[in-house]
Amino acid sequence: MNTTQPTAAPRAAEAVAGALAARKRLALTGVIARQLDQIAPGTARVRIAPVTTDRDGEQRVATWVSLDDALGLPIKADRAAHRAALGLLRRAFPAADWTRAHAYDVAAGDLALDAPTLPEELHQ
C-alpha cells in the first residue's frame, strides 16, 4: 500500500505565486493613482480621519478627508472630489478599519494608520 505524504510546495511555484501577487498589487496601485489624479490632479497623499461633530446638541461622527500634494500642502478640491477619493479608497481597501485615521501614499500604494507620534528627541 502506497500512502501519499504531504510535501512542501516547490520554491518555483512559490516564486510564481509571489510574482503574480506583486503584479496584481502594482496594477491596483497604478489604477488608484490614475483615478486619484482624475479626481484631484497632483494628489500625492490622502489622509482620512473620523471626527466627532456637534450639530444641534447631537454628537455625530463624520469623516475628514485631506488631499495633499507632494509638498504636503492641501490641494484645492470641491466636496465631491473629497467624497470620491474616500469612496475609492474604501472600495480598494474594504478590510481597513475606517474608524481610525489612515493615510494613503499614492506613489507607494500604502494605506497606513495615521497616528500622531512624538519626535524622537522628546522621548525620555
Provide a concise account of the structure shown.
The chain has 124 residues and is an alpha+beta fold. Helices cover 35% and strands 24% of the residues.
Core attributes:
single chain, 124 residues, alpha+beta, 4 strands, 35% helix, elongated
Task: Report what the structure shows.
It is a single chain. The chain has about 120 residues and is an alpha+beta fold. The chain has one domain (about 10-115). It is built from two helices and four strands; from the N terminus they run H-E-E-H-E-E. It has helices at about 10-40, 80-90; strands at about 45-55, 60-70, 100-105, 110-115. A hairpin with a 4-residue loop joins strand 3 and strand 4 (about 110-115). The longest helix is centred in the first third of the chain and has 29 residues, at about 10-40. The model has no long low-confidence stretch (mean pLDDT about 90).
Chain-wise SSE layout:
Elements (H helix, E strand, L loop, with lengths): L10 H29 L5 E11 L2 E11 L10 H14 L9 E4 L4 E4 L11
Antiparallel strand pairs: 1-2, 1-3, 3-4
Q: Provide the residue-averaged pLDDT.
A: 89
Helix content: 25-40%
Low-confidence stretches: none
Q: How many E-type strands?
A: 4
Number of domains: 1
Radius of gyration: 21 Å
| Count of helix runs | 2
**Strand-pairing-aware structural class:** alpha+beta
Strand order of the largest sheet: 2-1-3-4
Name the assembly state: single chain
